[in-house]
Design the sequence.
């Protein structure tokens, strides 16, 4: 019985790749050093899967930054601003595209479907000269082969690649990206013929866009693309892999009729409806790669249930044509449970990280082939049962409170009345300046937190060190003449983990890192039970910071939807139930901050858009409960308390009405890499009456923008937004930057705001 893994995490069990990348970027190590770390990681992954008995082991799912960027490099689609002169693309061009360099900005980064991973968006147009410029896929196949592992090379399929691209600057927004298909297929053919020559017998094309709402023209492009590739693919087994949702029936028809394709991969965890389509008809003689092991969560698989699903599929497709697989790449889960020595035993028995999921896939394949590991299956069943009955999972009081679906939870007055009351109280200038929350986390600061955690310094010493840091950050902001201050979050490791550690129902890992983008990893908490707030979480630090300044100090909270979307969430109750529970816990905190004299409270919903279902038909319901959860948190505050929220990397245009319905007083938005796409919403006449601060510079890049550049950006915003509602702020928190970058950038930002205040005053 065959088994398959769609893809595997690249960072390494202890984030080896992250440290190697950052060392290389800082000039502390050579390209050779970086390549060595990467090669060691790849070989250990291939060996691990081979040892586990996996038959179809993927290659080319490793990346130094991002798999879509790898495809851009393969196709030689380098934007002209990087001055690439042809030839094989090396680290210099590759990392400039990913991160920008001293003279030009990075390419845009955006969400990979509805995950927490970000990809680098290709910039295409009619004049792009495609050429085969990165032989990575072939090199990695050969590398594995030399180690004695025959892999399945994985490529992002040509149609999904184009559908995930955007028209480059200066290209008509309406440019039909799919019209470039004929220009990229010759390169795909070259890659395929090299893989064949190297001995590959299988090839995997990831075409995840097939789970989206696609019109007939787009579906026809899939038909055309694979018809064109058919002769090149002959003699190979071709797998088309889909994931993250079920495949709509029209797309299923298109997919299963593609020329030259021998196998189809489906996500049967998030795509339960696909099962009905398969039962309704599956092409004879083709392979079904059944994604029954969840690649996006950390819960141990319910082996008995998966076995039942596989058993029924076997009857439809035949024993020799069913392959057990993961629902998607394991990139989206943590790497290896073995490294979790501190995790509670009972909770640990409920979990499986990537390495364990590989073992689960193989155990299911063996069981189907009649070699069931009874001990493995029975310990799995025992863990499933203990999770269902554990008293740690259920808290009656929380269940009761969260049943409050009746109320609409809105503030008593409308936003314009509230803004007037707040302005009387806060007395801010026009174009008020603020930052998003975090300030740089220095090596010294991380050391203090680490030593406190390890009990090497006392609580008093810790509090003193953090107070000192806050007072430095407050003084710096006062010196820069920023209007609404933040305390800089020196006590926080992460915007979700910090709260999760103080809420009940959460568990934490030591090495449960998941790649977010490039070398940036996040360590999502695990929500295993009902959530509540035993005691205040941030009041001490916020009131301490407010006592150091006469200017308004923002309270800083992470919103319920973001905590939900950035955690590994329990899968034994609907997501919205868990979200309402978190909202009630944050509501307690908001009201305690207000009582402590904090007049401006920011509730970040950076990840609101992230949980948006991929299909239009499911989006309204999600947005309704997500926005409702946000309103629950602040429906009880006074008019004079100003509620801010912050949102990241998003296409807001399609959810702007939900954002307005959140009814925050001020919203700050990460938009500087999305090139003012955001502002087009307001140009199209959406009326927005609350305060708004679209980010005026990109904090994800080390570049320091000039005063003129920022002023120019603010002017663009003033063209579509009222002067009295516009705020001036960076586009995200500053914790990943250095002070040598932050000080001049903020100085220029404040100077730009003052320059425009002067111009506006004289224009009056």
Sequence:
């Amino acid at each position: 019985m065959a088994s398959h893994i769609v893809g595997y995490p690249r960072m390494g069990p202890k984030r080896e790749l992250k440290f190697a990348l950052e060392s290389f970027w800082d000039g502390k190590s050579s390209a050779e050093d970086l390549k060595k770390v990467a090669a060691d990681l790849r070989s250990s992954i291939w060996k691990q899967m081979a040892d586990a008995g996996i038959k179809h082991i993927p290659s080319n799912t490793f990346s130094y930054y991002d798999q879509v960027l790898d495809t851009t490099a393969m196709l030689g689609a380098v934007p002209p601003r990087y001055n690439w002169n042809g030839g094989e693309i090396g680290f210099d061009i590759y990392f400039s595209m990913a991160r920008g360099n001293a003279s030009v900005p990075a390419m845009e980064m955006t969400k990979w479907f509805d995950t927490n991973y970000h990809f680098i968006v290709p910039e295409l147009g009619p004049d792009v000269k495609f050429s085969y410029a990165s032989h990575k896929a072939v090199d990695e196949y050969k590398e594995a082969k030399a180690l004695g592992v025959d892999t399945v090379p994985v490529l992002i399929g040509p149609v999904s690649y184009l559908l995930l691209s955007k028209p480059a600057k200066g290209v008509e927004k309406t440019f039909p990206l799919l019209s470039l298909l004929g220009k990229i297929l010759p390169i795909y053919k070259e890659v395929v013929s090299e893989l064949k020559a190297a001995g590959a017998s299988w090839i995997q094309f990831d075409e995840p866009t097939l789970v989206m709402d696609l019109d007939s023209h787009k579906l026809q492009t899939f038909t055309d693309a694979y018809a064109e590739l058919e002769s090149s693919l002959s003699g190979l087994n071709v797998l088309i892999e889909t994931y993250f949702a079920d495949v709509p029936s029209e797309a299923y028809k298109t997919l299963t009729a593609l020329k030259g394709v021998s196998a189809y991969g489906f996500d049967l965890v998030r795509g339960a409806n696909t099962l009905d389509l398969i039962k309704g008809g599956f092409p004879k003689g083709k392979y079904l790669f059944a994604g029954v092991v969840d690649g996006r969560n950390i819960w141990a698989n319910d082996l008995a249930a998966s076995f039942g699903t596989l058993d029924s599929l076997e009857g439809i497709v035949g024993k020799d044509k069913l392959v057990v697989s993961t629902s998607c790449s394991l990139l989206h889960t943590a790497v290896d449970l073995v490294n979790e020595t501190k995790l509670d035993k009972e909770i640990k028995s409920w979990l499986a990280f990537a390495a364990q999921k590989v073992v689960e896939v193989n155990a299911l394949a063996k069981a189907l082939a009649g070699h069931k590991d009874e001990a493995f299956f029975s310990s799995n069943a025992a863990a499933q049962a203990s999770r269902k009955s554990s008293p740690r999972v259920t808290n009656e009081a929380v269940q009761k409170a969260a049943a409050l679906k009746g109320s609409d939870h809105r503030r008593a007055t409308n936003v314009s009345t509230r803004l007037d009351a707040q302005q009387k109280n806060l007395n801010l200038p026009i174009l008020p300046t603020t930052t998003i929350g975090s300030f740089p986390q220095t090596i010294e600061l991380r050391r203090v937190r680490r030593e406190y955690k390890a009990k090497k310094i006392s609580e008093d010493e810790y509090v003193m060190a953090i107070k000192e840091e806050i007072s430095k950050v407050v003084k710096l902001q006062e010196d820069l003449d920023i209007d609404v201050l933040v305390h800089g979050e020196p006590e926080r490791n992460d915007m979700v983990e910090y709260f999760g550690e103080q809420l009940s129902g959460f568990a934490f890992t030591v090495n449960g890192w998941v790649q977010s983008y490039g070398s940036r990893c996040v360590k999502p908490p695990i929500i295993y039970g009902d959530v509540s707030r035993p005691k205040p979480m941030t009041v001490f630090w916020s009131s301490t910071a407010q006592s150091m300044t006469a200017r308004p100090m923002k309270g800083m909270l992470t919103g319920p939807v973001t905590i939900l979307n950035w955690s590994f969430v329990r899968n034994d109750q609907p997501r919205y139930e868990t979200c309402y529970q978190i909202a009630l816990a944050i509501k307690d905190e908001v009201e305690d901050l207000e009582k402590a004299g904090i007049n401006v409270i920011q509730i970040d919903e950076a990840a609101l858009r992230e949980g948006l279902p991929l299909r239009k038909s499911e989006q309204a319901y999600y947005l309704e409960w997500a926005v409702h959860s946000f309103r629950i948190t602040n429906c009880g505050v006074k008019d004079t308390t100003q509620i801010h929220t912050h949102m990241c990397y998003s296409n807001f245009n399609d959810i702007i009405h939900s954002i307005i319905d959140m009814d925050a007083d001020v919203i700050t938005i990460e938009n500087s890499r999305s090139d003012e796409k955001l502002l087009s919403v307001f140009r199209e006449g959406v009326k927005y009456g609350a305060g708004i601060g679209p980010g005026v510079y990109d904090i994800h890049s080390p570049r320091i923008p000039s005063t003129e550049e920022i002023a120019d950006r603010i002017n663009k915003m003033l063209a579509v937004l009222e002067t009295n509602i516009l705020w001036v702020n960076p586009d995200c928190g500053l914790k990943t930057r250095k002070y040598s970058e932050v000080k001049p950038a903020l100085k220029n930002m404040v100077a730009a705001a003052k320059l425009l205040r002067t111009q506006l005053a004289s224009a009056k």
